[in-house]
Design a protein that fits this description.
With 189 residues, this protein is of the alpha+beta class. It is built from seven helices and eight strands. Strands 2, 3, 4, 5, 6 and 7 form a six-stranded mixed sheet that branches. Strands 1-8 form a two-stranded antiparallel sheet.
């Protein structure tokens, strides 16, 4: 998944078809410690070369294993996403950087185009914040211990409302006592 820009010039006008499998497990695990393992990555698509840019359109499929965000149990998480990027050399980018539509261009630092890093970046960006096991998806039960429990935001707000009702403002405590005394004297009469 790495080519010299000189080598890519021979594909100018004719798209380079990409259909391969790569292994990026070690580099993914080095970049994100929460990834427990990653399967082989299937990459397919095209690389279009013209006078000023290198356009990449890829479909990426893989399966990673990450811990559940609720219980830390390992979860197999299949991923499929598209990569659509434009690469340019710095001198080419300088000519078009003020033109609308070129804000998202990736500027090449070297005379090589390495798509492995882009694929790794997209994998890391596509891992969701919440990953649950099949059982956790079916159940609303949250983990809890002897002196702690995880609660949903809704449960938290309900608990706060309940504690506000139960907690009496100390400034009104004496007033409440007067009202209780007043009610007791009314009952006696």
């Amino acid at each position: 998944m790495k080519w010299s820009l000189l080598e890519l010039r021979k594909y100018q006008g004719n798209p380079l078809k990409i259909d391969t499998k790569i292994d990026i497990e070690q580099s993914l695990m080095a970049r994100d410690e929460t990834i427990l393992s990653a399967g082989e990555v299937k990459v397919s698509g095209f690389l279009n070369v013209d006078e000023t840019s290198y356009e990449v359109q890829l479909e990426v499929q893989l399966e990673i294993v990450v811990p559940s965000s609720r219980s830390l149990e390992p979860v197999n998480f299949p991923m499929a996403f598209m990569i659509d990027e434009v690469y340019m050399k710095p001198e080419q980018y300088e000519l078009v950087k003020t033109v609308e539509g070129y804000e998202d261009v990736m500027v090449l630092e070297t005379n090589t185009l390495d798509l492995r890093e882009a694929i790794e970046d997209y994998v890391l960006l596509n891992i969701p914040m919440q990953v649950l096991t099949a059982e956790e998806k079916k159940s609303d039960k949250m983990p809890e211990g002897e002196f702690w429990k995880i609660m949903s935001e809704e449960e938290y707000y309900q608990q706060q409302k309940q504690s506000q009702k139960e907690t009496l403002d100390p400034r009104f405590a004496t007033l409440s006592a007067l009202l209780d005394d007043n009610e007791a004297s009314d009952d006696e009469s």
